[in-house]
Amino acid sequence: MSLREALTYLDGLGFDHLYRRSMPPEPAAQDSASSESEPAAQATEAGAGSLSIPEDPRSLFPPAEPEAALSPEVRLQRLDEVRRLSQGCRVCGLCERRQNVVFGSGNPDADLMFVGEGPGAEEDRQGLPFVGAAGELLTKIIGAIDLRRDQVYIANMVKCRPPNNRDPQPDEIAACRPYLDHQIDLVKPKVIVALGRVAAQALLQSNLSLGRLRGTWHEYRGSEVRATYHPAALLRYEKYKRPTWEDMKVVRDRIAAVRG
Ligand code: SF4
Fold this sequence. Notes:
Elements: H1 3-13, H2 28-31, E1 41-44, E2 50-53, H3 72-87, E3 105-106, E4 112-116, H4 121-126, H5 133-144, E5 153-156, H6 170-187, E6 191-195, H7 197-204, H8 210-213, E7 218-220, E8 223-228, H9 231-236, H10 241-259
Parallel strand pairs: 4-5, 4-6, 6-8
Antiparallel strand pairs: 1-2, 3-5, 7-8
Helix pairs in contact: 3-6
The chain binds iron/sulfur cluster.
């Protein structure tokens, strides 16, 4: 695939922010030695730096039929295809220091999806979202609204860990958004809970404070969205536990209502 074809393809997926590495292009011999966990092709062009892309990812985003008509099995398969595409992703600079791409996990038929801002150190190490102390608390929160963790879907705005746990930057969030959008389109959750200010602002593309975004319903890609505090904030500040519980009761009731 030529660089022009690659850029056209990625643009079609919504990747309109591409990370350019300043290092010199790698030798051609290394380009052909890629594996599934690495980019299968590197396109280079004078003045364009180097851009790593999968060799032929066209078939990995094949929603030829309405997702609503897809069985959970097929949606799980599609999610796995998108996950495999993400494993070799080098579209933004967060690829440089990651140990693992933390794509997301959960039930492809979930009514409820949680979206955080990005992986932390433990998530980066294990390749799974929300597995540290904050993840344990999230599991308890899910249980408190009468669900199990394997009944929901969990993902982040960016799939690779920002260095030193800094907030993901707008260009990194924009670069990674197509993966999240495909996850949402395939899972089609009735309700999305955005965890924390960064995730809420990024998902809803808003500059409002978390305090302003909480307490009301929003919409994103056909799902209703509620913003609440990040579990890590609850671990640090007891005062956030009560409002988070109030938010989650609203979410629980909304899911029950739409299920009929
Ligand atoms: S954060 Fe997202 S866009 Fe950036 S390299 Fe990782 S998977 Fe690709």
